[in-house]
Design brief:
Number of helices: 2
Oligomer: single chain
Strand order of the largest sheet: 1-2
Number of domains: 1
Distance between the termini: 32 Å
Helix content: 40-55%
Structural class: alpha+beta
Length: 81
């Protein structure tokens, strides 16, 4: 896996945007945990950065909705077990 991570980090061919997403957990007390997501994007050149920015403005509302749905589903499942 480390070689896959290194390949992702090192990839710099012009014309692309690289994206990574994670889920993070933070214990709050003995019964609660905070869960959140982050998405990070880096473009490999200025032209790709501009193209991705236009794309992101278009899809961001739907992406945010899907993310909220994921988090709600996790919460429902956690609260019923």
């Amino acid at each position: 896996m480390l070689s896959s991570v290194r390949a992702f980090v090192d990839f710099a061919t012009a014309g692309y945007a690289k994206a990574a997403m994670n889920f993070s957990l933070e214990p709050l007390n003995g019964r609660s945990t905070r869960l959140w997501t982050e998405t990070r994007i880096v473009a490999t050149d200025p032209t790709s950065r501009g193209r991705f920015a236009r794309y992101w403005r278009l899809i961001h509302p739907g992406s945010a909705l899907i993310r909220r749905m994921w988090l709600s589903a996790v919460r429902r499942r956690a609260e019923t077990t």
